[in-house]
Specification:
12% of the residues lie in helices and 27% in strands. The chain is α+β, with helices and mostly antiparallel strands. A 6-stranded mixed sheet has the order 1-2-3-4-5-6, with helices on one face. The protein is globular, with a radius of gyration of 14 Å. Keywords: Signal.
Length: 136
């Protein structure tokens, strides 16, 4: 199994500052993934720089998400990056160097710690029009 150690516990964005967002798709939009999990878009954030430079974050609500679903969530996030996010970044200025996909079992304001909420995050670099997973 790839990424097993990175899935031991949910990640939190406790150190990130609260920021505004620029939506590229309507909040609440239902999104399909290979696992069949019901997801909806919370927001798209484009104005918080990441370690690789310009970063776009696609945040999704995943009701009922539990820590044991980390590997399935990782597969769904890869599919979302390749089939949903990458289609929505064309024309963004500055051009994103990184895409972050996140799932949360409840809506949590960006950057706010929520120890009781299951959250998973994956980071991808863009290479030849595809999302390539990177260790966060």
């Amino acid at each position: 199994m790839r990424r097993t150690s990175a899935r031991a516990a949910p990640s939190l964005l406790a150190l990130m500052a609260l920021a505004g967002c620029q939506e590229e798709a309507p909040a609440g939009e239902a999104v399909s993934v290979p696992s069949g999990r019901k997801l909806s878009l919370i927001e798209v954030i484009t104005d918080v720089r990441g370690p690789a430079g310009a970063t776009v974050r696609f945040r999704f609500l995943a009701p009922g998400l539990v820590p044991a679903e980390a590997e399935t969530a990782a597969e769904d996030m890869q599919a979302l990056c390749d089939g949903f996010a990458i289609k929505r970044i064309d024309g963004m200025v500055p051009a994103p160097q990184q895409i972050v996909i996140s799932f949360a079992s409840e809506v949590v304001p960006f950057g706010q710690a929520a120890p009781d909420v299951v959250q998973f995050f994956e980071s991808y670099r863009l290479e030849n029009g595809r999302c390539v997973w990177e260790i966060f």
